[in-house]
From TrEMBL:
GO-annotated cellular components: cytosol
PANTHER family (alphabetical): CYTOSOLIC 5'-NUCLEOTIDASE 1 FAMILY MEMBER (PTHR31367), CYTOSOLIC 5'-NUCLEOTIDASE 1B (PTHR31367:SF0)
The protein's name in its UniProt record: 5'-nucleotidase, cytosolic IB b
UniProt superkingdom: Eukaryota
Amino acid sequence: MSEIKPTDPAATNAGEEKDWAAAKAFFDSLKTRKPRPPKPQYAVTIAVSSRTLFNMVAERKIYEEEGVEKYVTFQQEHENEPLMPGVAFPLVKALMTVNSRLRQLYPDSEELFDIVLMTNNHAQVGVRLINSINHYDLTIERFCMTGGQSPIGYLKAYMTNLYLSKDGEKVTEAIEEGIAAATMFTSGDVENQLSDTQLKVAFDGDAVLFSDESEIIAKQRGLDKFFEHEQEFENIPLKKGPLKCFLEALGKLQRKFYAKNERMNCPIRTYLVTARSAASSGARVLKTLRSWGLEIDEALFLAGAPKGPLLQMIRPHIFFDDQMSHIEGAKELGTVAAHVPYGIGQKYHKGELIEQPVNDVKDKK
């Protein structure tokens, strides 16, 4: 068996830079109104599945009831009919709006959103997906179509900052690989209700931006112990959660607007929407963000009150939460909600234990 020789990282990087420079020079020599995709290592890469970008409920039904061959045939027969927008469609449009503003301020910058279509569809379905993307004039140039296999293994190769899918198992797999990910849920026709000039992203705190270390105490030992713990450890930053890196990426792009004196006109706005009480346990989360060097535009402490009505006022393009009860409440009032399957909250629903924590199971011998 032949031995694979180690690669010199410096030589590899030099080769990649040379290849990229050549590709850029060729692209720039062509006359096109399409903006050139940013260089992956500088971009904020959002990978979306085909079923989040487009409404494929009818097509999915064919796949489940009649099998993959009938599904592929149907897609080919209808490949000139654009798919209807899906739950992630307004988000993608908002990302493109931010890119447009960034290009005005920084014409040569590679620090932009890059949207990748990440799907386990077969390549034969690709023509309909491409036609649909062109029909809506979406800037999506990078595709990954895996022919029925899980696309999760490709997320790191695409340098993904956030993966959005309707498949909860794939999302869980991505989070286990250390990639920010969430399962998106349809909440009705909300596209016309969302801002077309500002990207709005709302985050829950514990088990989303932060780890679930404090939530474990609240769930297993009660609120009084939780409040005591948070006040005692107020000056000790919480550990990072699965979406901390995505907030960092948003912050990086926000600061580019701030540098041009565009803070008050920034097309990205972030929200912390947490069930925590401000006076009893809010200081620690704000100090944690400060210790990370991160800003949040609005911090909303609800002290256990429902999140849905407040989210209805914000109208975010996406709201991330680890607990399905909050996701369901948000959906009922028309918010685009995305579930982050992480932490102890997955063992509870509406405060009730649905799975006994491993630590509480005594070894019976």
